[in-house]
Amino acid sequence: MRAAWLGLLKHSLNRVTVPLARSGHGPFALVRHVGRRSGRCYETPLLLARYGDDFVAELTYGPNVDWHRNVQAAGRCEVVAGGVTYEIDRIETFPTAAGLRAFGNPAAVVLRLLRRRDFRLLRVAASG
């Protein structure tokens, strides 16, 4: 059931949100990652929060989704947010309270009501 739901999202909602995220308009960012088995490049639209120079992701569908597993395996990815591309050189587990603060209200209120507790910090690589 869960795999069917994720497939439906991938083939319907993502067709709308990927171009929106690429354009730099709207709330979505793109995570560009390489498949851990296929070697193929993928773009996954996500709602990310800024945390200083870095980004916070809430793992709505848990840590076993492909984008997260691919980034963990590669140790890197790119984030396109607001039309700007950021190199991410590591991903870390992030405390729930800090993740909720990063998203701010009203998003944090919704995340609390949905009992979301699984956050990741995507570290932007130092330039130069």
Automatic annotation (TrEMBL):
Q: Which InterPro entries match?
A: F420H2_quin_Rdtase, Split_barrel_FMN-bd
This chain belongs to the protein called Nitroreductase family deazaflavin-dependent oxidoreductase
Superkingdom is Bacteria
Q: Which GO terms describe its molecular function?
A: oxidoreductase activity
Return the Pfam families for the record. Answer: F420H2_quin_red
